[in-house]
Each structure stands twice: as structure tokens, then as C-alpha cells.
């Protein structure tokens, strides 16, 4: 029979109580069950641990030698169990997402593999919901794509990865058949943008700084709507070069932009103490990313 922590718990209860009945009551077991556990432990160790009389139960010399060792083993097991309960009870992490990408999926697969006990939730927030959801506590962090190196000052921002940009156009657009375009080619184009005017200006400011004055059509709330509107010929848009892998569909073309500012994905966090799981998510995301600090 293998030695178990249950054997040692029974041994310590009898050693401390000096009575099988009181030890059994303390352990919520019957006296016979405790007696059986002690007998099994003595057989396993090939040592008599208690001198039993009709009036008393006293540890033998071997019992006294075992007692500190048993306490140490039980304390170590209790520490392991407490750690396991704490880890299992750790609240889930709610991850906000503006736009999906292959690197985002690889990041979440890596954190799920490394922290399988954490309940990971992914919330699709679109363009307009990320900041409000993070500020309001609806999510614990958010993966946000920005045009250029232009993070929001409202949050702690961790740069993760950068991509070259592509122009999203309907496949019947004059630029759709080009191998690549330059920003100057986009002068006079209408850009489908987000409904919020402040957010639209923030998104387009890298284009303005590059000398392009885009005409904004502020009618979209998420990238799916942008794609549908571009496909319908309402305007064009700029996306990271991985967009075709996730969002390719009939009627759209994705044309590389030679001189565009990069599309940078940031991990946004509230400026407060973070959970261990969230800190680990950030470290893994940075490790898999390649953006400059």
C-alpha cells in the first residue's frame, strides 16, 4: 500500500489528541476508520508508531521521530492544494478585439496552452466599442489596431506587431488591378471610416501627416461593415497586410501600399494593477510580436 497524505493526517490527529475517538471526531471519521489508517501506516513503514492501552495512546520513539516529518509533508501538500484552489478560482480574462488577425489567434492559442485553468473570453468590440468597453470595465484588455504609431493616451499601450498596409477596394475599382499603389494615388478617394468624428480624425491623422487629405465617409462601426461598404463601392479603406488572410471575400481587392504608415496593433490596458493572468497575456503577446517599443 502506498503512503498517502490521508495516512499522515490521521497520524498527526492521533499524536496530538492522544485518543482515537477525539482524533476521529476532528477528522469527521469513525474511530475504526482512523484505527485502520494508523495500522496501514505502521505496516507501510514497518514501525510501531503508538503504544496503545485501554487508557492512553502514546507515540513511540518512531512516532515521535515521524511527527515533525509528517507535519512538514502535510504542510507542503496543503500549500499545493491552496495554490491549486487559488489558480482554479482565478477570474476569467475578458479580451476585447477590434480587428482579428492571424497573430492575434496565435497569441490567444499560446496563452490558452500556457494557462489552461484561466477562462479566456474574447469580445468582438469593433471600432467604436474598444475604448468605452475598456474604460467601463467590460473587458480587461483590448487588442486595438491603429494606423501608424498612434496609440490612445487614455490607456497603457503595449506595441505588439506592425504590418505593412493594403488598400481595400472593390474589385472593379481602377486601382484594384495594380500590383501596388502609393499614398499619392489615393488623393481624392473617399475613405469609409467610423461613425464617431473624433475617432475618425484619430484614425486618419497619420494619412494627413503623410500629406493626404482623405475625404471621410463616417458610417461604419466595425471592420465587417467597412468591407461590405467598400464592396458596395461606397469608398476605400486601409488595413494591415494580413487582412486578406482573415477577411478575403468575393468582390474585394487588397492592394499593397508602398509608402503607407504601418498598421500597428497595441494591447491596451487600464492604468491599474493587473491580474497575474493578464500580466502573462501581455508578456506572451509581446514575445510573439515584433513592434518597436
CATH class of the largest domain reads Alpha Beta
Distance between the termini: 58 Å
Give the strand order, joined by hyphens, for the main sheet. 4-3-5-12-6
Please report the total strand number as a whole number.
12
Biggest sheet details: 5 strands, mixed
How many H/I helices?
A: 10
Give, in order, the helices and strands.
Answer: HHHEEHEHEHEEEEHEHEHEEH
Dominant shape: rod-shaped
Task: Identify the CATH architecture of the largest domain.
Answer: 3-Layer(aba) Sandwich
For the record, the count of structural domains works out to 3
Named CATH topology of the largest domain = D-Maltodextrin-Binding Protein, domain 2
Broad structural category: alpha/beta
Family: Belongs to the LysR transcriptional regulatory family.
Domain HTH lysR-type: 1-60
Protein name: DNA-binding transcriptional LysR family regulator
Pfam families: HTH_1, LysR_substrate
Outline the structure in words.
The chain has 293 residues and is an alpha/beta fold. The protein folds into 3 domains: 5-88, Arc Repressor Mutant, subunit A (Orthogonal Bundle), CATH 1.10.10; 90-162 and 264-293, Periplasmic binding protein-like II (D-Maltodextrin-Binding Protein, domain 2); 165-261, D-Maltodextrin-Binding Protein, domain 2 (3-Layer(aba) Sandwich). It contains 10 helices and 12 strands. The chain has helices spanning 5-17, 20-27, 31-45, 61-88, 102-114, 126-135, 197-209, 223-231, 243-247, 276-288; strands at residues 50-52, 57-59, 93-97, 120-124, 141-147, 156-163, 165-170, 190-194, 215-220, 237-240, 252-256, 263-269. A 5-stranded mixed β-sheet has the order 4-3-5-12-6, sandwiched between helices. A 3-stranded antiparallel β-sheet has the order 10-7-11. Strands 1-2 form a two-stranded antiparallel sheet. Helix 1 packs across helix 3 (31-45) and helix 1 (5-17) crosses helix 4 (61-88). The protein is rod-shaped, with a radius of gyration of 32 Å. The model has no long low-confidence stretch (mean pLDDT 88). This is DNA-binding transcriptional LysR family regulator. Belongs to the LysR transcriptional regulatory family. It holds the Pfam family LysR_substrate. Keywords: DNA-binding, Transcription, Transcription regulation.
